[in-house]
Amino acid sequence: MSTEPGHRLNDTDYERFRGLLLERSGLHFPDNKRRDLDLGLRNAMNDAGIDDLDVYYRRLAGGTTTDPTWESLIQYLTIGETYFFRNAAHFDALRNHILPELIAERRRNGLRMLRLWSAGCSTGEEPYSLAILLRQLIPDIDDWHIMILATDINRESLMAAQRGIYRPWSFRTETPSYTQEMYFTRLGNRFEIKPEIRRMVSFAYLNLAREGYPSVESHTVGMDLVMCRNVTIYFDKATTQAVIGRLQAALLDWGWLVVGHSELGVIDYEHLFAPRPFKGAVIYQKMPASPPQPEPARSISPTIASPLPPAAKKTPGRRPPRQVAAQPGQDGRPPTPDPAPLDRYQMALALADSGQLEQARAHLHALLKENPRHAPACWLMGKLYADQQEWDRALEWLQKTIEIDQLLAQAHYLIGLVYEEQELIEEAVTAFKRALYADHNFILGHFSLGNLYRAVGMVKDACRHWSNAADLLYHMASDDVIPFSDGLTVRRLLPVIQARLSDDLSECNNRAGRSRT
Questions:
Q1: What pLDDT band is residue 224 in, cutting at 50, 70 and 90?
Q2: C-alpha to C-alpha distance for 100 and 97, rounded to whole angstroms
Q3: Whose CA, among 36, 243, 429, 455, lies 20 to 30 Å from 197?
Q4: What is the pTM of this model?
Q5: Cis before residue 214, ω within 30 degrees of 0?
Q6: 258, 229 in Cβ contact below 8 A?
Q7: Mean of the pLDDT values across residues 145-169?
Q8: Where are the domains of the chain?
């Protein structure tokens, strides 16, 4: 194919490129967006110095979406227009109803914490708008634990967001007139966000179309509010449904999802959320889980980073779902219900993620009082004690976990780490083996078992497990966070394993001669 302007993709090239994009990134290019795909491909190929479509396709197919070739293409295909306080109706609902209610509820509960997520944050105007809004609504905000997570698949946009320097075009008619003067420093004809606002937002790469969230590692658990506006317009219906389902799992009960006006009615949200009408906007609220049906045959899942604990039981006298009042603080409003068991676990995860360990334990104890056989809660309790090096209490809770679920790989793995800290090598080896029996693809189990085998001179066994870990990592993206690793990425761990395989384990080189560039 020629890359000269005006040349169109032929049908074969159009189908294979749009299929690859849908599979890897979730981006969908139907017939009415064929020209957008053509233009984006041409620009990205020019950046890459490639003028042959077949060569370019092979480069994409052989890489991951975190490779520079993919990142350049995604940049051209997902350029989003945004500005501060875009869509006044959404921000009016947040300013006058949703956030004041939430702030008042947290004050009543003595839990001064909020977690907000801008999913598809582009160049940062949306999450910074949320930070400004919270500064206005919470006079004692420095006494609160505030997390505003901002994620995007476009790394160029993320870098621009982190710089926090904007042109006048980022301030439109919907942007309050005081915004520039109060929250920005003028740099010639540009405006730099002030440090106290910048510090409130954490930016991170995340491909919403890929599984792996919600998770503790990506900080996408226990959310009070998720804004995902004009993001799903890039996806097909199946991908959108999957993304909305994961965002719903990331929210606390009674949490809020904000989507773009163009996305309303296109996808059926009502089986996951209750639509709440505000002036000029509809915003979706996550309702507590329904009463459980008779329990089917249990299937064991080793995953806890994306938790789905048993549904909450209704307790006698439990209040009906809240309705959003016309004016906040109006008399006769139903009081906020207590958190349901599902909500308690999500809240405990969020508290642990923000360093509030005692409050996290309090929620876990309350949950376990209602449901003593809640294995994820027992595991998290064990992890909290292990993180504080209280080994005996950690083991007590982890043993309870595997009494409930013997095939919970992460519980066996954490037991192995505790034993390793206590220099009980044989016990640690046994625990890591049990983790791998429960889940043979448990990356950190292979890595840790390899380390122990190497320490006792069992070089071939060490090599075998390191190679298994490397093989699993090869199939992940470089910036993917390894499950149950407290934030360790593939990019950081894989070179460590490769170095150990190549430095002094020459007999293993035949097994692990591949390297990742």
A1: very high
A2: 6
A3: 243
A4: 0.67
A5: yes
A6: yes
A7: 92
A8: 11-77, 88-286, 355-508
